[in-house]
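User: Please predict the structure of the protein below. I'd like the answer in structure-token form so I can feed it into my own downstream comparison script.

Assistant: Understood. Taking the following sequence of 480 residues as input:
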Amino acid sequence: MPPRGSYDAIIVGSGPNGLAAAITLAEAGLRTLIVEGAKTIGGGTRSAELTLPGFIHDVCSAILPLTAASPFFHSFPFQKYGVEFITPPVAFAHPLDDQPAVLLEGDVAQTARNLGLDTEAYQRLMGGLVSKLDQILEEFLGTFPFPPRYPWLFLQFSVKALWPATFLARSVFRGERARALFAGLSAHSIQPLEWLATSSFALVAGAIGHRYGWPLIRGGTHALTKAMAAYFIELGGELQVDLPVASLDELPKSKVYLLDVTPRQVIRIAGNRLPNRYLRQLSRYRYGPGVFKVDYAINGPIPWKDEGCKRSATLHIGGTLEEIAESERVVWKGGHPEKPFLILAQQSLFDPSRAPEGKHIVWTYCHVPNGSTFDMTERIENQIERFAPGFRDLILARQVTYPAQMEAYNPNYIGGDINGGVQDIRQLFTRPVPRIIPYSTPAEDIFICSSSTPPGGGVHGMCGRQAAMAALRSKQFRIR
């Protein structure tokens, strides 16, 4: 049963954005309630024993560079709530055939020295970006800023960020190593690398790796969820789990409702309060490819050919720029690549609490067409074996998760789309529909705070924070 009484704000959904929105509103002194449909909170930041007892896997988000870099989390009292970030010495490793892996180190110059022909080119591209990273994030981790706060910096970054990743990589770099590094970063966009603005993902994620590293959380990402919930409750907030919301009419009266859901669910639970024109716009919102995920319990560390791969918790597995671009292109054409691009995490190398002594966990996924039912397990394992022969011999257990199972786990993952919708140039800053304040809706008391709003997917909390600020500035409160 829903709690009784009335509230200043009710948040539907307890993912990182819903929690960030709730915290922002509670800090402003509002009586705030979170309603979560699942039995546990967290959305994409949950951890569980997915394979065998004692093996703690991250169900979705595992490596948290955006958390480390996010303005929302910069003042969060992590230490008070026992959250410990572990930052490996290398942000990520990118193995290649018959040559040393490419390693993104904290130091730009050190990374550049291992890129052969492209040492100077890499330093020119990334050096200034890293030094101005906080200003860039201030510009782009939210609504599209107009006018920009830092116009010259905005122009410099945008000129590079708007290029397709394949074009920028081939224009700036001459060698295979730097191009592969850039391709792996760009593939986080979950788009063909020939598309406009895919370079932006590589530039931001790479700069964050140099500045903040790509950390994980000791014990699992659920520790972040627990800390955010504890802080929210300490602020006076209320939280109700195991309460699916079919309609806002089922909830207590509130001055505002913030929905940590994607457009499809907004239509379902708030459609009777929104005008038809806006609902038609929401119905045209585009969802992207899904993910096919495999979690492993293994009997020892992954036997990488290159020992440098053991210096990072994160690996990009896909080979050259050409191979990665082909993999992502095939997915967007509705196919399943023979050699998929993988994002792999080996958290237990740096966090022994994740597995029994001497054992390890592996977390990995590849991109597949939305709603795919194709089993990618063999192709994933072939890619790992390519750079770590003998990996299969170590497998104790595996947990395979298809796109439909991802959606069942979290209804925001429509067809396995973990980004809350395509994050291309058409839906980057105009998600979910073009509006001056994208978090608002035509109903003055309804706001959207999910990753279907700017700046999109990732554990940064900024969608929630920006939506909460929009609510506070609305006619309902007029807090400046």
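That's the full token string. Residues 85-216+289-409 form a domain with the Polyamine Oxidase; Chain A, domain 2 fold (CATH 3.90.660).
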